[in-house]
From TrEMBL:
This is Catalase. The keyword Metal-binding applies. GO terms for biological process: hydrogen peroxide catabolic process; response to oxidative stress. The active site is at 93, 166.
């Protein structure tokens, strides 16, 4: 028990002026431990059952130095709860980040659906959106090369509707029965427990080499789509076709697309590798701080609408999730906007406990016959039971609908609804006023005709595994193609068994001869190339689809991007001021990086506060950088490896770099060669040239001078 020796309140215990809450007082205990004691009127610390606690620092002992007594139920309750704080992480998509927001409909789809969320223009439907990586465990790094989950729960007036999508519009497999194999192959190898959050290992490529249907997805996976700059800069896709059903009962197929208002952007591979060390939480920090700072990320919801007859004319089967419908074939119709404007109050309660379910549908929307989707409709409900431990997971606030819900399901673990009724069944004469089915408002499945013999069979219309893989590769710009080649070289170079590489090269050659040859050259492959099975349909040449590229979508912009300025003592205050102004005018944020956290004194005697100390903020954290250094400052930086790498990495990562003339020796030491992305900052006004150049993106033309392009 604490004695009554009082000590001065610490900063944290100052009176809270907002609520006029009395300050807790610090009291030193007999053993020198510091207790913080409730002031009159302050909430009391209690057990989970409401018992006020007198001492939260000492367990009950037989004397001050005696053994701890089993009688101490307060200790036992605290430790018991702590022991069970963790729940099983998601078997896939374990690492996630999420935010609240809303979806606002701007264009009604009333001709196609009765779903209110898609027909009531101007209506704001609350949403909770969770982004995730797939393969890594909960503690893995954010910028792993991986597909990103993009799951949106709409709390509609007609119940929860979940679009549980990815940032890639296709998937690895065509039938859900293959999912456990895919995931077992990509996760850590079970006999060694590594590698973590990576596909660059034998079991993944072994499985892929044996699975031609995965080739289209592999092209996307090896592209820069899987190393996004942030979740704010990536697309999302519902992947499967769904049905919209209108008031006349007519069905139209639909695919859902999320398009980021800030445009798409990815990092380069070497940057991703370094980012994971510099800040493993890069994506979650980015989403959190942008929402906290009022820069609310937004996406447009687009739909591709098509009829059964139109679908029959496609040169692929839209029920096959390894295929896209090019936007040139069925254009996107923008119907609304998703805005994320509130961070979770508690990450466990919300981000971890949210339970997305593909089968969460609303009247007016229905499933297509995509076999992958049907498997998912079982899996998501089932997985919540092992993850959240109760069939009542829908009662957790983040999962509960915001519209009324009632039925005759009762009891079970963690039941929190009082359900104070005598009658828990229908029909009933005792209680004819309880919840009942509605033939007008209730969900109805589209009465699609199905009368075929049962068979475990894959449709022949799913059989073309190479044409869209090639279409994706051919639709990329030159640097993007180079990155796919480089990613394949990297991944396959980590594979130990030569037969896996030889077999993969056979698939790549089938997709595009030059792709296969370039990867083989990058690997220095001397062995054979095993041809892809010839009885799989040969690929055809499809029209290129420029929409499949990241580069060049949307007008150039720096909005939402981060400018990092490395500033030394004695630096030109006008240049610093000009850069701060230009960055803000361009809609970017600027962070000042200094050799020491205390900041610097500029040439006019003013002090500039630092946001970061140099070694703690490598240039990978920023989209565009500037070195604003004095001569003496540059001389000092030349002795710092962190400063040389700061500039070297920015150059190697194809970033636009601004610099003062005095900083030139540092640029020379970092191997920087002049090009269109190296901008001199002699006076304040030059910063606009820097931000304009940076808005256009990276300096792709520099790439062949910083790494071998195979
Ligand atoms: Fe998932 N997937 N998945 N998936 N998936 C899960 O559900 C599954 C697939 C996706 O932020 C699990 O609640 C099967 C495609 C996202 O909480 C699980 C198949 C797409 C998330 C599951 C697929 C996705 C998941 C694990 C093959 C893109 C994270 C935890 C038929 C359209 C949601 C959970 C979140 C999560 C099963 C394939 C997206 C096990 C069986 C295709 C975004 O139920």
């Amino acid at each position: 028990m604490a004695s009554s020796k009082k000590t001065a309140p610490r900063a944290a215990a100052k009176p809270n002026t907002k609520t006029a809450m009395p300050a807790a007082e610090f009291v030193v205990g007999d053993g020198g431990e510091l207790h913080q004691v409730a002031a009159p009127g302050q909430p009391l610390l209690t057990t989970n059952h409401g018992l006020p606690i007198s001492d939260d620092h000492n367990s009950l002992k037989a004397g001050p130095r005696g053994p701890v007594l089993l009688e101490d139920f307060i200790l036992r309750e605290k430790i018991f709860h702590f022991d069970h704080e963790r729940i099983p992480e998601r078997v896939v998509h374990a690492r996630g980040l999420a935010a609240h927001g809303y979806f606002e409909l701007t264009d009604s789809l009333a001709d196609f659906t009765t779903a209110k969320v898609l027909t009531e223009v101007g209506e704001r439907t609350p949403v909770f959106t969770r982004f995730s990586t797939v393969a890594g465990n909960k503690g893995s790094a954010d910028v792993a090369r991986d597909v990103r989950g993009f799951a949106v729960k709409f709390y509609t007036k007609q119940g929860n509707w979940d679009i549980v999508g990815n940032n890639i519009p296709v998937f690895f497999i065509q039938d859900a029965i293959k999912f456990p194999d895919l995931i077992h192959a990509v996760k850590e190898e079970p006999d060694r427990g590594f590698p973590q959050a990576q596909s660059a290992h034998d079991t993944f490529w072994d499985w892929i080499a044996c699975t031609p249907e995965a080739m289209h997805m592999v092209m996307w996976q090896m592209s820069d789509r899987t190393i996004p700059r942030s979740v704010r800069f990536m697309q999302g896709f519902g992947v499967h076709s769904f049905r919209l059903i209108n008031a006349e009962g007519q069905s139209t197929f639909v695919k859902f697309h999320w398009t980021p208002v800030l445009n798409m952007q990815s990092v380069v591979w070497d940057e991703a590798v370094k980012l994971n060390g510099a800040d493993p939480d890069y994506h979650r920090r980015d989403l959190y701080t942008s929402i906290r700072d009022g820069e609310h990320p937004a996406w447009e919801l687009g739909v591709q609408l098509f009829t059964e007859d139109e679908a029959a004319a496609f040169d692929f089967d839209h029920l096959d999730s390894t295929k896209i419908i090019p936007e040139e074939v069925v254009p996107l119709r923008t119907i609304g906007r998703l805005v994320l404007d509130r961070n979770p109050a508690n990450v466990f309660a919300e981000t971890e406990q949210v339970a997305y379910c593909t089968q969460n549908m609303v009247p007016g929307i229905d499933f297509s016959d995509d076999p992958l989707l049907h498997g998912r409709n079982f899996s998501y409900l089932d997985t919540q039971l092992s993850r959240l431990g109760s069939t009542n997971f829908h009662q957790i606030p983040i999962n509960a609908p915001k519209c009324p819900f009632a039925n005759m399901q009762r009891d079970g673990h963690m039941q929190t609804h009082p359900q104070a009724t005598r009658v828990a069944y229908t029909p009933s004469l005792i209680d004819p006023s309880g919840p009942r089915e509605s033939h007008t408002e209730g969900f109805r499945s589209f009465p699609a005709a199905v009368e075929k013999p049962k068979a475990r069979v894959r449709s022949a219309t799913f059989g073309d595994h190479y044409s869209q893989a090639r279409q994706f590769f051919m639709s990329q710009t030159e640097p993007e193609q180079d990155h796919i080649v480089a990613a394949l070289v990297f991944e396959l170079s980590k594979v130990e068994l030569p037969i896996i590489r030889s077999t993969m090269l056979g698939h790549l050659v089938r997709i595009d001869v030059s792709l296969g040859e370039r990867v083989a050259a990058g690997l220095g492959h001397r062995g054979e190339i095993v041809p892809a099975p010839t009885d799989i349909p040969a690929r055809t040449d499809l029209a290129v689809s420029p929409k499949l590229s990241i580069i060049g979508q949307g007008p150039p912009t720096l909005v939402g991007r981060l400018v990092g300025a490395l500033v030394t003592d004695g630096a030109d205050s006008k240049v610093v001021g000009g850069l701060i102004k230009a960055a803000k005018a361009a809609g970017a944020s600027i962070k000042i990086v200094c050799p020491r956290l205390g900041g610097v004194v500029l040439d006019d005697g003013s002090t500039l506060a630092a946001d970061f100390q140099m070694a703690g903020a490598p240039s990978v954290l920023f989209d565009t950088v500037a070195v604003i250094a004095s001569e003496a400052g540059t001389t000092a930086l030349l002795g710092e490896a962190a400063a040389v790498s700061w500039v070297h990495d920015a150059f190697a990562h194809l970033k636009v770099i601004g610099h003062t003339a005095a900083a030139q020796p540092l640029l020379d030491a970092a191997g920087v060669e002049p090009d269109a992305g190296i901008v001199a900052l002699a006076k304040g006004g030059d910063a606009a040239t820097l931000t304009d150049t940076a808005a256009a993106g990276r300096i792709w033309a520099r790439e062949p001078s910083v790494r071998t392009v195979y």
